Amino acid sequence: MVLRILLLFFISLPALRVDAQEKGVEVLTLPGGQILVGVGERSAMEQPPFSEWFDRGYASYMPEDSLVQLLRHQSFDDVTVTVVLGTWCPDSRREVPRFFRVADAVGIPDDQIRVIYVDRKKEAPGMDLASLGIERVPTFIFTRQGREIGRIVEVPRGSFEEELMEIFRAATKEKNNNKS
Q1: What are the backbone angles phi and psi of residue 147, rounded to the nearest 5°?
Q2: Where does the chain show beta strands of DSSP type E?
Q3: Half-sphere exposure of 174 toward its Cβ, with a 13 Å CA cutoff?
C-alpha cells in the first residue's frame, strides 16, 4: 500500500524532466508548459515548442544595416557573450531572438556565446549564478579576456546594434587608455 502511494506521488509530480535536447540542457514540463534549464547553446531554442517564438522573433527583426556594417569591423575574437534567459519570460522570448539575429549579422561565432537557461527563480541546475549578478532576464554579459566590458539587462536602451556599438566603443576607449 505504501509503495503504491509513493509511486502515485512520484508519477504526479508537477515538474517532470522530459528530454535533454543537448548536453547540459533539460526540458521541464510544468503546469504552465515546458521550459528549458541548464547551460547550452541556442540550438535548444530552435526545437519545438520553443522554436515557435524563437524563429518568429529571429525572422521578424531587421537590424539596422549601417550599424551592422560598422560592427562587422569590430574584432570579436576575444569576446564572449553569456546570455541568461528564461524561456518562460516574455522579455526573453522577444529579445533573445533579436540578439541572435544581430550576432549572426555582425559575425559573433556561436562558440563564443554561452546560453544559460534559468527557471522562474533564476536558477539553473548545478550552477552558482550569484557571481553573475542576475536580477532580471534576459541578461546579456559581454566579456573580453575574462573581464566584463558591458551588459544589457532585459531590453536594450535603443536597439541591440546601438547597444553593441556603445559597449565596444567604451571597451576600445578603455583599452586604448590603459595602453597610455
Answers
A1: -110, 130
A2: 16-22, 25-30, 33-40, 79-85, 113-117, 139-144, 147-153
A3: 11
Rounded Cα distance between 62 and 159, Å, is 10
The reply to whether 14 falls in a domain is no
* DSSP β-bridge partners for residue 79: 144
For 91-113, what is each residue's pLDDT tens digit?
Answer: 999 999 999 999 999 999 999 99
d(C-alpha 72, C-alpha 25), whole Å = 31
Residue 39 contacts residue 115 (beta carbons within 8 Å): yes
- The parent domain of residue 80 ranges over 38-179
- Judge whether 78 lies within some domain: yes
Q: Residue 10: what pLDDT?
A: 33
Averaged pLDDT of the chain: 86
Question: 139 near 154, Cβ under 8 Å?
Answer: yes
